[in-house]
Write a structure and sequence with these properties.
7 helices; Chorismate lyase; alpha+beta; 10 strands; 6-stranded antiparallel sheet
């Protein structure tokens, strides 16, 4: 690393060292050296060029992440954040369309796509009998290669018989279901949660980071078509709703 700034960070300054590191990083961003979605220097590289302790650099990165200047992806690194993504709370939108509308790139990874016999909990969610055939899918949605949503979905196998045959890396389940069974009624339950250890790995977030959860049921002509649990990292997404009194 040719850049060496160790003499530029003054321990005698009234400005704390971690604030000086934050200022250095923000200056790189605001002058366009590091652009939106660029991966910045690693913690180790920042320690080396600034001459500051790892604790100081780590605090600077944590605070910039909390201020939504950076996005930290566990095991990958820190990236320059863009405007925080958002989803319409009172609408049933396609996450791929929302991401593309922001001129960003959407992709999906299908983790599970299978036929199951409803257990007790799944039967309650789908208002069915235990043992009834359902389709179960788990899909991770990415925005510019950063995971922003886990979609854990159950589908009425009788009403949507070809669900398992679809390529959900090319079309989202939302888009497919809306085409096959347009929604006539829906219910949203929104809550703040802590994701499970496995969900944290899928989202590449630290354990204990707050997440947003939407539990969504949708009906078409009085038939319950699907129930989905959508999990968003709280640092990367927010929900927006509009209403009139």
């Amino acid at each position: 690393m040719s850049e060496n700034l160790s003499n530029s960070f003054n321990v005698e300054s009234p400005i704390p060292l971690y604030e000086q590191v934050k200022k250095y990083i923000k200056n790189k961003i605001y002058t366009g050296v590091w652009k939106v979605n660029d991966k910045i220097l690693s913690e180790s590289e920042l320690v080396k060029i600034t001459g500051c302790s790892r604790m100081t650099v780590n605090r600077a990165l944590r605070e910039l992440t909390a201020d939504k200047v950076l996005v930290r992806v566990q095991g990958v690194g820190s990236f320059v954040a863009n405007e925080q993504g958002h989803s319409a709370l009172f609408q049933i939108n396609n996450i791929a369309d929302e991401i593309i509308a922001r001129n960003h790139v959407h992709r999906a990874e299908v983790l599970k796509l299978e036929k199951v016999s409803a257990d007790a909990q799944q039967a309650i969610l789908m208002q069915s009998q235990e043992g009834v055939s359902l389709f179960h899918s788990i899909i991770i949605h990415f925005e510019n290669d950063v995971p922003v949503q886990i979609e854990d979905r159950l589908v009425n196998a009788l009403l949507i018989p070809n669900y398992l045959e679809q390529d959900f890396t090319q079309m989202t389940p939302n888009a497919y279901l809306m085409a096959k069974a347009p929604v006539t009624e829906g219910v949203h339950i929104v809550e703040a949660i802590l994701a499970s250890a496995q969900e944290c790995k899928w989202l590449k977030i630290n354990k204990g980071e707050p997440c947003l959860s939407i539990r969504r049921r949708t009906w078409s002509n009085k038939h319950l078509i699907s129930t989905a649990r959508l999990i968003y990292p709280g640092s990367r997404y927010y929900l927006e709703g509009k209403f009139k009194p």
